[in-house]
Amino acid sequence: MAAPYEDFANRLRKTLDRTGFVQGRGRTSALADRYAVSRETARKWLTGLAQPELSRIIELAKDFDISLEWLATGRGPMPLGVGETRAVYRRLTEGESRLLDAFHKLPEPKRQLLVKFLS
């Protein structure tokens, strides 16, 4: 019996492969660290046993510069190949990426306080 979210997992793995994300055994930990989720959650995303909530899928699509519709549903254009010129989303600067990584490492209550403070 196939995993319930196997199609999503295949698209996620394809995205990670095409963008040069960590390969092999370290991929699960790297994905978990980047999105501040448990290793078990990241493993389930990669094996098709779970699918992220929509807000997280949007974040993945933006971070990896791919089509949200394609990542979420498999419909629409495939993700762009590395080195192609047309971007689906603007790529984050190095500073923005570091800030986002730091934000993801915060516990959820502190994230909410920070968002409230900045609003």
UniProtKB/TrEMBL annotation:
Q: Write down what this protein is called.
A: Helix-turn-helix domain-containing protein
Entry's Pfam families? Answer: Phage_CI_repr (PF07022)
The molecular function terms of the Gene Ontology recorded here are: DNA binding
Gene3D superfamilies according to UniProt: lambda repressor-like DNA-binding domains
Query: Can you supply a Gene Ontology BP term from the record?
Result: negative regulation of DNA-templated transcription
PROSITE patterns reported for this sequence: HTH_CROC1
HTH cro/C1-type domain location: 29-71
Report the InterPro entries cross-referenced here.
Answer: Cro/C1-type_HTH, Lambda_DNA-bd_dom_sf, Phage_CI_N
- UniProt source species: Rhodanobacter denitrificans
Q: Where is the signal peptide?
A: none
